[in-house]
Amino acid sequence: MRKTVHPRRSVLYMPGSNARALQKAKTIPADGLILDLEDATAPDVKVKAREQVCQAIKDGGYGMRELIIRVNALSTQWGYQDIVAASRSGCNAILLPKVESADAIRHMETIMNANGAPDDMRIWAMMETPRSVLASELIASASPRVECLVMGTSDLAKELDCTHTRERLPMITSLGLCMLAARAYGLTILDGVYLDLSDVEGFSYACLQGADLGFDGKTL
Hints:
The chain is of the alpha/beta class. Helices cover about 40% and strands about 20% of the residues. The longest helix has 14 residues, at about 45-60.
């Protein structure tokens, strides 16, 4: 079992392109911060965001918060250089989006190893497509660096062509399969974001449901 004792109750996505947000993140009481170069960053500022995120990590000031860089997929024009930069940044982990195979993890690990990633830098994997779910056991066991599965429930719902419901019954099988893979290999697993920021009661229910299902924490 490789499960960490580091608390990951709340892990907050922060746009890597927003310098003020990166500064504000130093005061937010979250267990971890995902500095996002992918969905939250427009194509025309991705290179600048990469430089900005790496510099922010080197500057420090984030206390005991875990720092994770979500890179762009390797199939994009930014993915390779994102991983190279993240490997040298001093972050705690690199989050790879839309992982659908163990080969994707091993490819990323090869790039990390070739670019000086320390042995304790971990890999987190986004689980956000049907192929991700079906390959979850292979992904979870692909490398000793793999530490956490992160549910991308918004994209997964689109891929499944299902409806967002309070009980999340259309996604319960997918969530359960990823949970089984994480637990079988001693990984942390994080629930997906709650979309309606104005619905405090609904958010509270989603957090309680996630805990009941066995998630270690929630992305925000």
